[in-house]
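Render this sequence as a predicted structure.
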Amino acid sequence: MRGCDASMIASVTQEALLLEVDTSPKPGLVDLWSNGSHRDLNPWLFYQSALALAPYFRDFARLGASWEGKEPESLFRDVRDIGKEAEAAMFKATGGVNTHKGALFSLGILDTAWGYAQRQGIASAETVCMLASRIASKSLAEELCLLGRSSPRSHGERVLHRYGVRGIRAEVMGGFPSVRRYGLLPLQSKGGWRNNHARLSSLVGLMAHVEDSNLLHRGGREGLLFVRQAMRDLRPARCLEDQLAALDGPFISRNLSSGGAADLLSVAMVCSRI
């Protein structure tokens, strides 16, 4: 059995959040070129949020590493407790603006799984994603059953009721299948996660395939299909940055933002470092 470098895991995760903001241009999303379809968000808020969340990513990793004698499924309640503290710190840092709630949910579970896998000496991107699924699936399945019988209180719950789309919960329960199929390879083959073009390529793959609950909330099925088709119509022989920049206006005019795909880009960046 090996040790766990929780500080390293937290540093990688924080850098992934910072690089997600820096990835530009991202049509409809906050980046270094524009605030996209968001009037209440800007890069500075995302930076402040990422800084505030770093200690909690270390806590998630330590939780996973310290868990002995029980199955990974037993970790979820403690993951949620840390997540609530981290969410409060995020809102304090941003003055009440939601910057990373979705990313925090995914990355908190992922870092817990990474800490567990690192301590056991079995860490790989595939193994950590599958452990994340084991940690969360049972509790999330029970949660989805309850949500299906109750009145929706959030955008994600409204999307679940209207479209039957489980959003990020489905990604976690499946071991982040979209990340493994579409998001990870560009970060491994095009210069790594610090390369803007590689990150954009990863994001394009995710936007072309993910059933993004943020898009469904903002634009319905029509908006989701518009974004997917726009990503699939990109020409490999032309400059990717120029093509994406040209889409910013059309996305903003439709109030579209692929927030779910952006969160999964952060997950993909972390996975590329495992």
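Summary. The mean pLDDT is 93. Residues 183 and 202 are 4 Å apart (CA to CA).
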